[in-house]
Design brief:
The protein is an all-alpha fold. It is built from five helices and no strands. The protein is about 75% helix and about 0% strand. Bound molecules: MU-OXO-diiron (FEO). The site of MU-OXO-diiron (FEO) has 7 residues, from helix 1, helix 2 and helix 3.
């Protein structure tokens, strides 16, 4: 059993994870259009991971006997002024998601829903990693500045990212 309140916020968050996937796919397209294939690869993988996050919520709601309610996914931004702006938006977005996960944990605790609280702990940990990864890339971009060979090296580095095995 799952409370109506818990179900509502879990369904709402499912949409946020799919929106994240859409946003990162838009960023991948931005880099593909600029022939920065490594950066595009990083965002393609990021987009796939977000889809898996959405599926974790999808599966969990069903396991708890709840009704999955899919809603409209908002159109993401499609243009950025710079690489710096893309990653600043990425960090801002991940910080927002971390805040939303924390609010879900608040609801689970208020509802005394221990199973959902345990399910959410994976995301609490994941968000720490997500924010740290983006912050590290932002620091590298700051170091590179206008240096074209630095950008080439970063593109190569991010092009080597491989998708983690899908565990949903
Ligand atoms: Fe699924 Fe990057 O939060």
């Amino acid at each position: 059993m799952i409370s109506a309140k818990m179900l509502k916020v879990l369904n709402s968050h499912l949409n946020e994870e799919f929106y994240s996937s859409y946003l990162y796919l838009s960023m991948a397209a931005y880099f593909e259009a600029r022939n920065l294939k490594g950066l595009a690869n990083w965002f393609r993988i990021q987009s796939s991971e977000e889809q898996l996050h959405g599926m974790k919520f999808f599966n969990f709601i069903l396991q708890k006997g709840g009704k999955v309610t899919l809603s409209d996914i908002a159109a993401p931004k499609i243009e950025w002024k710079s690489i710096q702006e893309v990653f600043a938006d990425t960090l801002k977005h991940e910080q927002k998601i971390s805040g939303l996960i924390n609010k879900l944990v608040d609801v689970a605790m208020i509802e005394k829903d221990y199973a959902t609280n345990t399910f959410l702990q994976w995301f609490v940990t994941e968000q720490v990693e997500e924010e740290a990864n983006v912050e590290e890339i932002i620091q590298k971009i700051e170091m590179i500045g206008d240096n074209k060979s630095g950008l080439y090296m970063l593109d190569n580095e991010l092009g080597a990212r491989v998708a983690a095995p899908a565990v949903v």
